[in-house]
Write a structure and sequence with these properties.
This protein is of the alpha/beta class. It contains eleven helices and twelve strands.
Length: 304
């Protein structure tokens, strides 16, 4: 399988990201890192790893984020692909567990898990984000996933590092959408149209709230892109998405705005009072996972 990392100006974090991949219990993989013409020491940090599974590619010039993600997947050689942000981390067993799920069911297009939020120093801010409704756990069809996305109005499937998908399915749906906000949820919405989805209750990746990664302008831009994505999704799947799904999503809009605001504040210096206050709020939103008689997690807590 292939783990691909689109890399741009992540000198501070990329070493830890690479190390988390190389520490996997599953060892039959390639790690492809695409240097998007970085001007810092990011590429130099990657070259410091001597593991033969690591392959560093480079763009001749810096390209937009969405294009860089597409190009990164294009460098992958394996039939199963995981895209990992250059500052995120993987738990040691995620590849082993997700490859096993995909091998057990060839009809699956993708599998996803939950993630923890961490700060600049890898300290966990909140645990078990994403896949927080019972209808996203286990094997699910396109109708269920698409309706949940519209109701959630965010990314209930998880961040890129949560997902493992089939390269054939990725190519069949045209890869990532042309929407920087929807790189993760937009790809998932496409993939489920050509194969099944499987949600894992385990938290097996770490999404970093890096200092300065979410600004006020970025939050406003993300909200605008989110609205565009949802309009296009409803139009494309009008035969599946119900009016009730849209109504529930619109009612959740204040929650979506608040979540974005808290995430923005949490993306500040870990030693600041603002960060500590936001991190405390994120931690408070966690609640124990209840399980039904089949042992399947059942909770209504929402994603990141």
């Amino acid at each position: 399988m292939s783990v691909v990392v689109p890399l741009y100006q992540k000198e501070r974090y990329i070493g830890r990201t690479v190390a988390s991949v190389l520490a996997q219990t599953f060892t039959d993989f390639e790690l492809v890192i695409l240097d998007n013409a970085c001007t810092d020491r990011s590429a130099e940090v990657v070259r410091g790893f001597s593991d033969p599974r690591v392959r560093l590619e480079r763009n001749a010039e810096t390209v937009p984020v969405t294009e860089n993600f597409r190009l990164a997947v294009g460098h992958a050689h394996a039939p199963l692909v995981k895209v990992l942000n250059a500052d995120d981390l993987l738990a040691p067993t995620v590849l082993a567990e997700q490859v096993a799920v995909m091998d057990a069911d060839p009809t699956l297009a993708l599998v996803s898990c939950r993630h923890d939020l961490v700060d600049d120093d890898d300290r966990v801010i909140a645990r078990g984000r994403a896949l927080r409704t019972a209808d996203l756990l286990g094997r699910r069809d396109a109708t269920t996933v698409l309706r949940r996305i519209v109701r959630h109005r965010g990314s209930p499937i998880g961040v890129p590092g949560n997902m493992l998908f089939r390269r054939a399915a990725f190519d069949a749906v045209g890869g990532f959408p042309d929407n920087g906000y929807a790189l993760d949820v937009g790809l998932a919405a496409r993939l489920v149209t050509v194969g099944g989805f499987f949600g894992m209750p385990e938290s097996l990746s770490r999404f970093r709230l890096a200092s300065g990664s979410i600004t006020s302008s970025a939050r406003r831009r993300n909200m605008a892109l989110q609205h565009r994505f949802l309009r296009e999704l409803r139009a494309e799947h009008a035969d599946v998405v119900r009016r009730r799904d849209v109504a529930v999503g619109l009612a959740r809009e204040p929650v979506t705005w608040l979540r974005q605001r808290i995430m923005m504040i949490a993306s500040t210096d870990p030693s600041s009072r603002r960060h500590r206050a936001a991190a405390a709020l994120l931690a408070l939103r966690q609640r124990p996972v209840e399980r039904d008689q089949r042992g399947v997690a059942n909770t209504t807590m929402l994603s990141r």
